[in-house]
Amino acid sequence: MSALRFVDCNLNTHGAAILEIFNDAIANSTALYEYKLFPPEKMQSWFAEKQAGRFPVIGAIDAAGTLLGFSTYGVFRARPAYKYTVEHSVYIHKDHRGKGVGRALLQRIIDAARAQEYHIMVGAIDAENTASIELHKRFGFVHAGTITQAGFKFGRWLDLAFYQLTLSTPASPADG
């Protein structure tokens, strides 16, 4: 991981690689509670949403410029009083899992949330994804609850566990 670099992802440079990572997660895991693979045009609206909300998309790339994974966050719930809470995601290319890329990306997305003065980060994790749960716990995330049988995929019910990290920001929260 010594040659790992971090970049702000964009549609033109990283859209196809992010789409590949998303589609692998849809087809082969319960990391995304989706059934249908995302079409290429999904990336345009996805990046536009991130840009409109000023939400980072942080990519980890190797020395050759290959995207190994990415982290991001977005709206937790679309109500004004939730403005200091974000729901984050970390996705790693299937060939690069277990190599520390997820740990590095989680640290960077936490740093970004702190810099943007968010207060709570929420990870919605399939309850059977013990690797992701343990990673989050190492960063101080605590279990905030589980919605049992929240999803149905691959012929079975899926439990969705929520983990949260409380940041010391913002310095001066305000209503409105």
Question: What can you see in these coordinates?
Answer:
It is a single chain. The protein is globular, with a radius of gyration of 16 Å. The N and C termini lie far apart (43 Å). The mean pLDDT is 96. The longest helix is centred in the first third of the chain and has 18 residues, at 11-28. It contains four helices and seven strands; from the N terminus they run E-H-H-E-E-E-H-E-H-E-E. It has one domain (5-166): Gcn5-related N-acetyltransferase (GNAT) (Aminopeptidase, 3-Layer(aba) Sandwich). Helix content is 30%, strand content 32%. It has 176 residues and is of the alpha+beta class. The protein has helices at residues 11-28, 42-52, 101-115, 130-138, and strands spanning 5-8, 57-61, 67-75, 85-92, 120-126, 142-153, 156-166. A seven-stranded mixed β-sheet has the order 1-2-3-4-5-7-6, sandwiched between helices.
Descriptive keywords:
single chain; Aminopeptidase; 7-stranded mixed β-sheet; globular
Strand content: 25-35%
The helix tally amounts to: 4
CATH topology title:
Aminopeptidase
> The biggest beta sheet, please?
7 strands, mixed
User: What is the 3D form?
Assistant: globular
CATH second-level architecture: 3-Layer(aba) Sandwich
Q: What Rg is obtained from the alpha carbons, in whole angstroms?
A: 16 Å
Number of domains: 1
Mean pLDDT: 96
What oligomeric assembly is this protein in? single chain
According to DSSP, the number of beta strands is 7
What's the end-to-end separation, in Å?
43 Å
Q: Uncertain runs with pLDDT below 50, 5 residues or more? A: none
Structural class: alpha+beta
- Helicity level, as a percent range? 25-40%
| Widest beta sheet: strand line-up | 1-2-3-4-5-7-6
CATH class: Alpha Beta
H/E series: EHHEEEHEHEE
Q: Can you identify the CATH superfamily? A: Gcn5-related N-acetyltransferase (GNAT)
